């Protein structure tokens, strides 16, 4: 197997923050015909995840995961002829390096912390340690063993139920860079297609071990128990435990997932927010792990190893085909030669030539003749003078300079002389001489008949007689010449003696060289000029640039061209420049929120209109807020204007406290809402710190006077509220917060 030069040294595409792990020398090596090796050099222990695809717009498929056991050079076979079906074409490999960390593990696409949260902002020391318990959306840790203690210290257990719609970041006890998992991340841990779970014991602590099926990486969740809502009592230690998510189920419960050692399944459930459960965070952002990635394109081409050629040349010729250079050979022989090349795919290719050198053993036949009394000395033959007509056959046996046989066969005919006679008949006019066919007869002045004879020798040296019978005539032959021609309108035909400028048939009589009449007939056509009218319109500011024109003003323009007959052609442009219309949109009223409808009018000098509602009048009536546009047209010229109709939204202001002390000022807590009369629904709930409803109202006019069951509420006490309203457009809004009573 020959190693080829398809080696790719890749500049890494770096993402994330400043890297402490790098892939500083990554390459793919292709070995003909179908083996690929991956070589990578790592600065410390790192995971390499390899993906591949035939099209970068398609889904990347996992090829394998390679774990470096330490820093240094690693070489891995990722494709081999013995276990792969070779598919020729483009293949893209994506390599991703992920830094190994003792604090987090990648399980089914989510980086989970390897330890529970202990005191707020601090991980437990070991993976099997319980850490501390937390009530939902509360940043107070409770001890995993009795007696019940807290962090921060000196806290009192209470059945706290948070009204918030998520676990607020300020209440998240996760260490920096981590956060509570959401329900989607929790479900990814329970996906048995990608994650396996077994109940096990770690250093004497029972729990569940979750393993990523693709990578083999694992994470341990202990089962240290939980604390009850009412008094914080510890339940089921070393048997069961639940872990909070950041997502509430309703106002009093939130989602969690349970680790129960007598059940191998894991499910997403919900519990009262006042329970004390464990917290196992996830990495806040994958970029915190610091990774490199690189995409390498590798083209796999078919391999052609050995090509066999057979060919033939003649003695005395060289061979310069298919990359071979073999000089001329002087003898018959057989040669073998080899070329070591690289084919178009850069793989080794061997070409073996089997060349045969042969003689040309040719035979040439010559046919020729001589006359009696001549000898023959051509083409190497020597034949003496022949005295009688006959046929002679002779043969020459020769050798070429390459010792190849060559035969020349002569077929020679000896002919008797033929004394032939040629008769010619011709005529001339009176006043002409005759100088043809070897005869010289002077000018003749009268009509007569002349007989003359020439005695010659032909090409065979035989006598030849030419007899001329020449007739001198005086009668003229009147010639007629027909001419068909054309001119353009405005031109004059002046050829052949004519001077005409109109269509028609014209005649002229001349004398030829012999004084005889010659008639010329002219058939003349006059081609009229073509006229092409063009009617066009453009918008103001545009330029008409068709048919050779360059105009930007209204008017009539003329251009003179040549048509296909070469005559003048007039192009007349009638151009209209239309103005761009003016337009603006005005409304019939500013009180849309009271009327719930409004008329919009397009004020314009245009002659037609089109609204974005599809209407084509200059006025429309609208009943909904939004952006309305109208386009005015003058011919093909247009201009668009828009008008924005704002939502009739309510503006809500909610005080943070009030003073029900009888002084007549700020005595009642009530939200202030603009356009309150348009509300379709109004709900106000006020809760004490234990989640109990102390006041509720479904009437905007009714506020809380600070009394609970007819008695004044405690001074300087903070209460929570939830306000739900539905506006005129049936949109629902929810507001939450805190208020303080000051007496």
Structure summarized in a few sentences:
It is built from 2 helices and 54 strands. It is mainly beta and 743 residues long.
Characterization of the model:
There is one protein chain. The protein has 743 residues and is mostly beta strands. It has nine domains: 3-99; 116-278; 306-358, no CATH class; 362-415, no CATH class; 420-473, no CATH class; 479-527, no CATH class; 530-578, no CATH class; 583-645, Immunoglobulin-like, CATH 2.60.40; and more. Helices cover 1% and strands 49% of the residues. It contains two helices and 54 strands. The strands form 18 sheets. A five-stranded antiparallel sheet has the order 2-24-8-5-6, with no helix packed on it. The chain has a five-stranded mixed sheet with strand order 47-54-53-49-50, with no helix packed on it. A four-stranded antiparallel sheet has the order 1-3-4-7, with no helix packed on it. A hairpin with a 5-residue loop joins strand 49 (681-687) and strand 50 (693-697). The protein is elongated. It starts with a strand and ends with a strand. The model is unreliable at 1-25, 64-71 and 81-86 (pLDDT under 50).
End-to-end Cα distance, whole Å, is: 93 Å
Q: Level of helix content?
A: under 10%
Major sheet size, sense and barrel closure: 5 strands, antiparallel
Structural class: mainly beta
Shape: elongated
Uncertain residue segments: 1-25, 64-71, 81-86
- How many strand elements? 54
The strand line-up of the biggest sheet is 2-24-8-5-6
Strand content: over 45%
Count of spatially separate domains? 9
Mean pLDDT: 81
User: Count the helices. How many?
Assistant: 2
> Which radius of gyration do the C-alpha atoms yield?
56 Å
């Amino acid at each position: 197997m020959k190693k080829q030069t398809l080696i790719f040294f890749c500049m890494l595409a770096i993402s994330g923050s400043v890297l402490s792990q790098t892939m500083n020398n990554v390459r793919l090596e292709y070995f003909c015909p179908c083996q690929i090796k991956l070589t990578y050099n790592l600065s410390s222990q790192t995971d390499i995840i390899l993906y591949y695809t035939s099209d970068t717009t398609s889904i990347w498929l996992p090829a394998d995961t390679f774990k470096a056991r330490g820093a240094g050079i690693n070489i891995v076979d990722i494709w081999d002829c013995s276990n792969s079906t070779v598919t020729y074409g483009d293949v893209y490999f994506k390599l991703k390096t992920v830094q190994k960390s003792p604090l987090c593990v990648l399980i089914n696409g989510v980086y989970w912390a390897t330890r529970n949260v202990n005191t707020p902002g601090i991980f437990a020391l070991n993976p099997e340690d319980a850490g501390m318990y937390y009530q939902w959306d509360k940043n107070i840790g409770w001890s995993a063993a009795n007696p019940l203690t807290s962090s921060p210290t000196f806290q009192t257990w209470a059945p706290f139920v948070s009204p918030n719609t998520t676990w607020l970041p300020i209440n998240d006890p996760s260490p920096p860079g981590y956060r509570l998992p959401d329900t989607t991340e929790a479900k990814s841990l329970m996906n048995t297609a990608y994650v396996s779970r077994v109940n096990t014991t770690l250093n004497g602590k029972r729990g569940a071990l979750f393993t990523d099926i693709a990578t083999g990486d694992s994470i341990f969740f202990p089962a240290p128990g939980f604390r009850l809502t009412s008094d914080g009592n510890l339940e089921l230690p070393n048997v069961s435990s639940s872990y909070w998510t950041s997502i509430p189920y309703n106002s009093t419960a939130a989602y969690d997932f349970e680790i129960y050692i007598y059940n191998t399944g894991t499910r997403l459930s919900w519990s009262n927010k006042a329970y004390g459960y464990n917290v196992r965070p996830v990495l806040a952002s994958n970029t915190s792990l610091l990774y490199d990635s690189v995409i390498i394109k590798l083209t796999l081409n078919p391999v052609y190893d050995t090509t066999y050629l057979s060919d033939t040349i003649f003695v005395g010729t060289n061979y310069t085909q298919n990359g071979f250079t073999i000089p001329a050979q002087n003898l018959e022989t057989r040669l073998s030669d080899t070329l070591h090349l690289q084919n178009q795919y850069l793989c080794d290719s061997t070409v073996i030539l089997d060349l045969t050198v042969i003689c040309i053993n040719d035979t040439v036949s010559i046919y020729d003749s001589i006359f009696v009394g001549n000898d023959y000395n051509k083409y190497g033959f020597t034949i003496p003078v022949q005295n009688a007509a006959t046929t002679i056959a002779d043969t020459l046996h020769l050798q070429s300079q390459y010792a190849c046989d060559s035969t020349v066969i002569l077929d020679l005919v000896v002919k008797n002389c033929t004394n032939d006679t040629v008769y010619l008949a011709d005529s001339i006019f009176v006043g002409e001489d005759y100088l043809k066919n070897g005869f010289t007869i002077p000018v003749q002045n009268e009509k007569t008949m002349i007989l003359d004879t020439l005695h010659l020798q032909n090409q065979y040296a035989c006598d030849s007689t030419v007899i001329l019978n020449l007739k001198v005539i005086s009668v003229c032959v009147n010639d007629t010449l027909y001419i068909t021609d054309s001119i353009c309108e405005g031109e004059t035909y002046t050829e052949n003696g004519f001077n005409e400028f109109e269509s028609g048939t014209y005649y002229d009589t001349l004398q030829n060289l012999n004084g005889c009449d010659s008639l010329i007939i002219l058939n003349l056509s006059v081609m009229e000029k073509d006229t092409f009218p063009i009617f066009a319109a453009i918008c103001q500011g545009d330029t008409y640039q068709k048919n050779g024109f360059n105009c930007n003003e209204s008017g009539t323009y003329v251009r003179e061209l040549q048509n296909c007959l070469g005559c003048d052609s007039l192009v007349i442009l009638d151009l209209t420049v239309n103005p761009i219309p003016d337009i603006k949109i005005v409304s019939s009223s500013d009180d849309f929120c009271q009327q719930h409808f409004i008329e919009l009018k397009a004020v314009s000098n245009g002659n037609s209109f089109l609204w974005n509602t599809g209407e084509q009048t200059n006025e429309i009536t609208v009943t909904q807020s939004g952006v309305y546009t109208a386009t005015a047209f003058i011919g093909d010229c247009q201009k668009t204007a828009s008008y924005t109709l704002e939502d009739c939204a309510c503006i809500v202001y909610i005080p943070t406290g009030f003073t029900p002390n009888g002084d007549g000022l700020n005595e009642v807590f009530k939200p202030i809402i603009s356009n309150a009369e348009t509300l379709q629904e109004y709900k106000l709930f006020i809760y004490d710190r234990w989640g109990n409803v102390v006041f509720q109202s479904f009437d905007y006019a009714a506020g809380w006077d600070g009394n609970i069951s007819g008695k004044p509420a405690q001074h300087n006490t903070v209460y929570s509220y939830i306000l739900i309203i539905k506006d005129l457009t049936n949109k629902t809004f929810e507001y939450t917060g805190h208020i303080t009573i000051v007496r």
